[in-house]
Amino acid sequence: MTRDLALLTDLYELTMAQSYFQHRRVESATFSLFIRSYPPDRGYFVSAGLDDVLTYLGDFGFEPSALEFLRGTGLFTESFLDFLAGLRFSGEVWAVPEGRLFFKDEPILEVTAPIIEAQVVETFIINQINLQSLIATKAARCVYAARGRAVVDFSLRRTHGIDAGMKVPRSSYLAGFAGTSNVLAGKRYGIPMVGTMAHSFVSSFDREIDAFRAFVASFPESSTLLIDTYDTIEGAQNAVKVGREMAARGQRLRGVRIDSGDLASLALEVRRILDLAGLHDVKIVASGGLDECDLESFSQRGIPYDSYGVGTRMGVSADAPWFDVAYKLVEYDDRPVLKLSTGKVSWPGKKQVFRVTDDRGRLVKDLIALRGERFSEAKPLLEKVMENGRIIGRRPSLRESRERFAEEFKCLDEAHKAIRSPSLYPVELSPELDSLRDSVGRQLQHAS
Hints:
Elements: H1 11-22, E1 28-35, E2 45-46, H2 50-59, H3 64-73, H4 78-85, E3 92-95, E4 101-102, E5 109-114, H5 115-120, H6 122-146, E6 150-153, H7 162-174, E7 179-180, H8 183-189, H9 199-203, H10 208-218, E8 224-226, H11 232-248, E9 255-258, H12 263-276, E10 283-286, H13 292-301, E11 307-310, H14 312-315, E12 325-332, E13 335-336, E14 351-357, E15 363-370, E16 378-380, E17 383-387, E18 390-391, H15 398-410, H16 414-417, E19 427-429, H17 431-447
Parallel strand pairs: 6-7, 6-11, 8-9, 9-10, 10-11, 15-19
Antiparallel strand pairs: 1-5, 1-12, 2-4, 3-5, 3-17, 12-13, 14-15, 14-16, 17-18
């Protein structure tokens, strides 16, 4: 991570920072990050992106070239630029760990630092938490809908740029995807890599069967043949011929992939062709514009796919491409503050989220409370992960976060996981937080 990322911010973060600086507004501030509402058909969120946020905060600073660029805008004073030259993040962060479930209005992350520091990091934090939690949530829905069949990420070519292209496989793997087609993500994050072939490979040969034979000769232990370039049924029959030739050599065709057409009826017919040929262990993979709704339909109808390649619709979260993420000031100079704008009311003070479970570990309800509160029957979700500008504690690996998600997701009631019109998980405010909000609200109304 380069310090040039200090410029990856909205201009108003820096203009506000200069005004804070000039008016000596340097006291400690706490900002709270939360999602205001559920997109359609969402009933939960999956926490992701914290690891990148912590790396960014730990490395935060302005390079000389960045300061020179800001100087060239004519907006900033020399004294403020000198201040930025020495600026580092010195605050603390409390956050919901990656891989945990959270719900609307709950603080995912709270930053406490001198107000300039806490303000200028807002844009990056929202950017990373929004994208990665968005994708992790979408991916979790796909995995749930697949009902035990493997789902892999095929989204790279249509994700929104390089950063998203890397964060999508990471976030989807965290939420249960089995692998990715992205080779760099495989290297960087240790995610299993999955790939078959493209239609161009098949059409570069005079005959489809020659393409199949060439490919299995190169990869005799790991070949999945794309059978829909011309006619899927004929492609399946050619795959049978190649599969039998491989069996005669002591090899095994791993699978076939269908990427177009009526995926449900084609899977039934291809499975019949493979089984009649005795190729019962050849898997069938579906791809081609799939999302959780398709996967749920296939699962409910018993369509014989063994795994799915999910690309565009997951990689851009097509039905819900953004979350209403807010990063709001909730305390300044030990004074609780809130926002009263219509539809955008916030909750004052430093907070904690407590989770209540039953004796079998199943999630019952959450309670948003002030950080100093304690509830013997509930466990706190937010953990202190940074202090005095330094990361504290051991950062869990991606695999550990993935395992944490899988365990917690098992404990969420099926009604909240529903792909369509899920029931809403109960989230309550503690009486103390509710009272504080009313008190601060009255004070603000009287002051205005």
